[in-house]
Every structure is written in C-alpha cells, then in structure tokens.
C-alpha cells in the first residue's frame, strides 16, 4: 500500500524538485545581474520533467563505504537537471552580461507561483488520501 502512495506522489515530488532547482538558477541569474561577462542560464522545465518521469523508478544513490565499520546504504535521488542552457539576450550589453532583469524577475515570479500551486495541490491530495483512510 505504501508503494502505491509513493508512486502516486512521485510525479509531484519530481515536479517540486525541478521547480526548486529552476528557482535557484533564476536567483543566481538575478544575483549576478551586474557581474561582467556573466551568462544567464535556464532550462526547459517541461522537457526536464518528461525526462524525470520517463525513468521507471527513482534513481538509486549508493553510498561509498570508506571503512569496514560503515553501514552500507542507498537512497533515492530526486530529479536533477543535466543540461543548463545559456539564454540568448534580447539586447547585448557592453560588459558581456546577458541577464535581462525584467525577464528574470518575470520568470522567477512565474516559477514561484507555479511552485506554490503545486504545493497547494499536493496538500489537498494528501488531505484527501488521509480522509479516505480514516474510518467514519
């Protein structure tokens, strides 16, 4: 039964993980808006989510044992972005920086709202599952 619950919420976990990673990339772009020769980066959320959900199950992370007394372990890793792409600027700057603050703020806000919406959806789903499991 736990496997079914985990499978049900795995898509949401991967989506939230990718949203978090995108938020970090966009925040990095905003933080380096005045850094000469900084190149803005981003990734296509939809294609990365498709890749993350196309995997048959969670990727296993194997921990290295550096001493004989260590306990071996493994855990599942969440979705991760493999290929960040450089953003093509709409207007070039003399210092070589490609960060467009208006576009970055817009993408940052959009990603924040979508992250919050996903959290709200997951919370309502969990509440529904909890109420279905409660005896009446």
Automatic annotation (TrEMBL):
Localization of this protein: Bacterial flagellum basal body
Region (Disordered): 53-84
Residue ranges of every copy of the Flagellar basal body rod protein N-terminal domain listed in the record: 9-39
Highest taxon, organism lineage: Bacteria
Biased composition (Polar residues): 53-63
Gene Ontology biological process terms in this record: bacterial-type flagellum-dependent cell motility
This protein's UniProt keywords: Bacterial flagellum, Cell projection, Cilium, Flagellum
InterPro entries given in the database record: Flag_bb_rod_N, Flagellar_basal_body_rod_CS, FlgB
Cited Pfam families: Flg_bb_rod
UniProt GO cellular component terms: bacterial-type flagellum basal body, rod
Tagged with keyword DNA-binding: no
Family according to the record: Belongs to the flagella basal body rod proteins family.
NCBIfam families in alphabetical order: FlgB (TIGR01396)
Stated role: Structural component of flagellum, the bacterial motility apparatus. Part of the rod structure of flagellar basal body.
Subunit-level organization: The basal body constitutes a major portion of the flagellar organelle and consists of a number of rings mounted on a central rod.
PANTHER family registered for this protein in UniProt: FLAGELLAR BASAL BODY ROD PROTEIN FLGB, FLAGELLAR PROTEIN
Protein name: Flagellar basal body rod protein FlgB
Origin species: Aliidiomarina iranensis
Taxon lineage: Bacteria, Pseudomonadati, Pseudomonadota, Gammaproteobacteria, Alteromonadales
């Amino acid at each position: 039964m736990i496997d079914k619950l985990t499978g049900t919420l795995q898509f949401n976990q991967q989506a939230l993980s990718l949203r978090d990673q995108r938020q970090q990339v966009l925040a990095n772009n905003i933080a380096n808006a005045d850094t000469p020769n900084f190149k803005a980066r981003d990734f296509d959320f939809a294609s990365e989510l498709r890749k993350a959900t196309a995997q048959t199950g969670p990727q296993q992370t194997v921990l290295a044992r550096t001493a004989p007394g260590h306990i071996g372990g493994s855990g599942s890793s969440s979705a991760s972005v493999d290929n960040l792409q450089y953003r093509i600027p709409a207007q070039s700057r003399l210092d070589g920086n490609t960060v467009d603050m208006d576009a970055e703020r817009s993408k940052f806000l959009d990603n924040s709202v979508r992250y919050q919406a996903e959290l709200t959806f997951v919370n309502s789903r969990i509440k529904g599952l909890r109420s279905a499991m409660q005896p009446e």
